[in-house]
Amino acid sequence: MNVLDCKLDRLGRSIKHLIETINDLQAKGIGFKSLQENIGTTTSSGKLIFHMFSALAEFERDIIHERTQTRLSAARARGRKGGRPKALNSKQIAMAETLYADKDNSIADICKILVVKKTTLYKYLKN
Predict the structure, then answer these.
(1) Which run of H or of E encompasses 45?
(2) Is residue 34 classed exposed, middle or buried when 0-12, 13-18 and 19+ CB atoms within 10 A define those classes?
(3) Each residue's pLDDT tens digit, 56-81
(4) Is the dihedral of CA 71, 73, 78, 82 positive or negative?
(5) What is the dihedral of CA 24, 27, 31, 35, to 10 degrees?
(6) 16 and 44 in contact (C-beta within 8 Å)?
(7) 52/93: higher pLDDT
(8) CA 61 to CA 54: how far, in whole Å?
(9) Which of 67, 64, 65, 116 is nearest to 89 (CA)?
(10) What is the pTM of this model?
């Protein structure tokens, strides 16, 4: 029997997916051995440990997700919002529109004045 070596948490995103993947591998004559947890699915005791560790791995992912969501909600309540800062403020957008309306100004010149790239300028002009 061939053996696939990899980490348990890299093989599946949920217990159901993990078990389906292991069953598919076993149907093809491939055993599973986890490098980090040092368990395998080629023996009955290894299968038991595999199921226990996969449940713990999914639980850990869920806990991390819940903590992240809680912290994001707390940050939003404090007035913080995530994401990249805007490249142009409202005055710069108005200036870009005025410069763009004057056909004597090239796109390259407008970009130099506002210190932005073409794609950024077009994104703001489009809106």
Answers:
(1) helix 44-77
(2) buried
(3) 878 888 999 999 999 999 999 999 98
(4) positive
(5) 0
(6) no
(7) 93
(8) 11
(9) 116
(10) 0.50
Q: DSSP secondary-structure letter at 103?
A: T
For tokens 């005791």, what's the residue? 45
Q: State the Cα–Cα distance between residues 120 and 123, nearest whole angstrom.
A: 5
Task: Identify the band that residue 36 occupies on the pLDDT scale cut at 50, 70 and 90.
Answer: confident
Q: Give how far the C-alpha of residue 108 lies from the chain's centroid of Cα atoms, to the nearest Å.
A: 34
In this structure, which CATH number among 3.30.450.20, 3.30.70.2860, 3.30.559.10, 3.40.50.1390 belongs to the domain 2-77?
3.40.50.1390
Q: Which amino acid is at 64?
A: I
Cβ atoms of residues 125 and 88 within 8 Å: no
For 38: left if phi > 0, alpha if psi spans -120 to 50, otherwise beta; the answer is left
What does the H/E/C string look like for 105-122? CCHHHHHHHHCCCHHHHH
Give the pLDDT of residue 4.
Answer: 57
